[in-house]
Amino acid sequence: MIDILEYKKGQADFPCVLLLGYFDGVHIGHRRLIQKAKEIAAKRHAMQDTQECRVGIMTFYEAKQGAQIYNFKERLSLFEKLGLNFVYVAKYNESFRNLSADKFLKTVISDLKVEAFVCGEDFRFGKGAQGDVSFLKKFSNSHEICAYIEPLVQVEASKAAATLAKRYLDEGDMLSLTKLLGEPYFIQGNVTTEGRKVGRSLGFPTANIHVGKEKYPLRYGVYAVSSIIDGKVFKGIANYGNRPTFQDERIVLEAFFDGFSGNLYGRELKLEFLFYIRPIEKFESEEKLILQLKEDLKKIR
């Protein structure tokens, strides 16, 4: 289980390498930084032959602006999967936004026993983004801390960034998004009982998840998805958006898993989005909707 240390409350006494940033989308650029930090920590531990040098990553509970690609819980699962030891998390509130670059870094090193910082070359911090990598290097040198500044990663002539990920979400371009993120985009949430009778009456029982407003929305439509349920991978089709055929304007993620039978209500699911199938349509009858769903299934099989 990954440890969570809070900004201004960390007080950790173990040596660490700390990744600085927000890491909203955990894209391939972030993954390269994480790999670099892990390599640095391993080398320092081998050289010193003392207490393990742990690797931590900074992030925020809330979105810095707009909505989040991955919410905090989803990011935690990714950070743990990528082998990080702890998360150093702050609340992105007015107090934090007004911190000077110097005060921010001084708080970090009072919370954590930092031996090295790792960040991308475009990292900015402090009130009005006054701090940059040059400031970080000077501060680090004066406190006998190493600072590793890594070049940006390019994806099809654009830098790997959250703004690019959000553009792909707007377009429903899951194939490009997968390439950017390094793995399929996912939504994680608890299955609710709302709307279960609709899918079941059609012969397509669905697992419905209400996506929180903190999540950046993806293009409304029908997608090919997959999920691991009880240790087995199931492919499926998922509708993200409203349900005009049933005059339901609520935004819901509902997924039908091909070949699965069982009760998923109340369980937490992680749905990976593979590709966009089609836009949401209003059908004249339930029979025509059923025919379309059967066609959708052919595309994932």
Strand order within the widest beta sheet:
1-4-3-2-5-6
Structural class: alpha/beta
Order of helices and strands: EEHEHEHHEHEEEHHEHEEEEEH
Percent in helix: 25-40%
Q: Alpha-carbon distance between the termini?
A: 35 Å
Estimate the mean pLDDT confidence: 92
Rounded to an integer in angstroms, the radius of gyration calculated over CA atoms is 22 Å
**Number of E-state strands:** 14
Runs with pLDDT <50, length 5+? Answer: none
Instruction: Note the main sheet.
Output: 6 strands, parallel
Proportion of beta-strand residues: 25-35%
What overall geometry do the principal axes of the alpha carbons give?
elongated
Number of helices: 9
Characterization of the model:
This protein has 9 helices and 14 strands. With 301 residues, the chain is an alpha/beta fold. The strands form 3 sheets. A 6-stranded parallel beta sheet has the order 1-4-3-2-5-6, with helices on both faces. The chain has a 6-stranded antiparallel beta sheet with strand order 9-14-11-12-13-10. The longest helix has 21 residues, at 28-48. The chain is elongated, with a radius of gyration of 22 Å. The protein starts with a strand and ends with a helix. The mean pLDDT is 92.
